[in-house]
Amino acid sequence: MRLELFKQKNHLRKHPVKQDAFFSFYNNIDMRNRGLIMLLVICLAGCGASRIKENTTLQSRIMDPKHPSDSANIADSVNSQIAAKNKSIAIDTATARVRTMISEDNRLMTNLSEGFSGEEGVGAIMKFLAADRLNGRESGSVGIDEAARFIEYIFKENGVAPYFSSYRDTLTNFEKTAYNVVGFVEGNDPDLKKEFILIGAHYDHIGNLVPVNGDSIANGANDNASGSTTVLELARYFGARRSNKRSIIFALFSAEEKGLLGSWHLAKKLKDENTDLYTMLNFEMVGVPLVNKDYFMYVTGYELSNLAEVGNRIVNANLIGYLPQAEELNLFKRSDNYPFYVEFNIPAQTFCTFDFTNFAHYHKVGDKADIMDFNHMATLVNKTIPLIEGIANSPTKIINLK
C-alpha cells in the first residue's frame, strides 16, 4: 500500500499539470458539495476498516479456545462455503470441457459423414457422471443433484427446452426428494409435432457398497452413465439440428434402482395429460461393445414389436439384433421402458450392448469410466441418429406392436 502511495505521489510530481487541474477542480466546488465528497470518502474508508475489523474478529474467535461453539459453527460455515465453491468449480470445469466439445461437434454438423458424436465428447460427459465426487449418484443424494445440474446445463446449452415448467420433475412416489430431468425438442411439422417420441435412460445408481481395497463408491459408469450419455448426445444433436418432424422428449430418470420409480412417475403423468406418445426408446448399459455378434446392439422385447426389423431397414444395416438371454431373464420388464409399455400399450423397448460376457462389474465398485469404450459409444450414437430420424419423420407410425 505504501509503495502504491509513493508511486502516486511521484506521478503527481512528474505531472504538475494534472495535479493543478485536480486542485483547480476541487477548489471550484462549493463548500456544501465539498462536505458531501469528504463524507463519502470517510464512509468508504470506514466500511473498509469495518470489514478488516470484522475479518480480524472472526479470525480471532475461530482461534479463541474460550469460544469453542463459535469456533465450530464458524468453521462449519466456512467449510460449507468452501465445499459449495469446490462443487461449482468442478461443474464449471466439466462444463467447460463439454462446451469445447459442443463447439467442435457443431462444426461437424455440416458434414454428417464425419459423424456427430466423438470419443472425446462422450468421454467428457462420462467422466463427469461417473466421477467419485458424485458418490454413486444414489437417488435423493447430493451427488445425483450435481448430476442433475449438469444434465440441465447440457439441455439448456443445446436448445433443448424444459418439457414441464422446469427441467426437474419431482417424483411423487419416492420418500426422498428426487426428480427426473426432462426436456424436449418440438417437431418441425405442424401436424406430426403433436405426436411424441420419448428417448430415455436412468441417471441414478446405487451409491456406496462394502469397500473393496478401500473403494466403496459404485460409480455406475456402464450402469447407467453410458445410457445417460447416449441420451444427452442425441439431445445435443436434435437440439442443434432440429431435423425431427415429430416432437422428441428426452428424459433422464431417477430412482430406477429403487424399482423403476422415476419412469413409473413420468409414464403415469404423461398418461394423465393425454400425451400422444408414439414410442419409447430406452438406453441401458451401452458402454462396451457386444462380443462375437453380427449385430451392433440388441433390443429387449424383441418379439413384441417390429422395431428391430423396421429399424434395420431404415439404416440399411444389421444394427439391432436378438439376444436370447434378454428374453430368458425378462429384461423387458427390468428397465425404464416397461412403465410406458404398461401405461400406453405402445412399442417401448430398451437398447443394450451388455451380453453377460463382456462386463464383469455390474453393481460393483469396478464399474468405472476408465474401462468404458468411448469410441463404441460414439459409434452407437452416430448409428442411432438416422434410426430416430426415420421414426420421427415417417408420414405414418411405422413402429408397431405385433
Q: What would your notes on this structure say?
A:
The protein is of the alpha/beta class and 402 residues long. It has 2 domains: 62 residues; 304 residues, Zn peptidases (Aminopeptidase, 3-Layer(aba) Sandwich). The chain contains 12 helices and 11 strands. Strands 1, 2, 3, 4, 7, 8, 9, 10 and 11 form a 9-stranded mixed β-sheet that branches. Strands 5-6 form a two-stranded antiparallel sheet. A hairpin with an 8-residue loop joins strand 2 and strand 3. It starts with a helix and ends in a 9-residue tail after the last helix. The N terminus is likely disordered.
DSSP strand (E) fraction?
5-15%
**Biggest sheet, open or closed, and with what strands and sense?**
9 strands, mixed
Instruction: Assign an overall shape.
Output: globular
Q: What Rg is obtained from the alpha carbons, in whole angstroms? A: 29 Å
Number of helices: 12
Rounded mean pLDDT is 83
- The CATH architecture classification of the largest domain is 3-Layer(aba) Sandwich
Count of domain modules: 2
Number of strands: 11
State the order of secondary-structure elements, H for helix, E for strand: HHHHHHEEEEEEHEHEEHEHHEH
Helix content: 40-55%
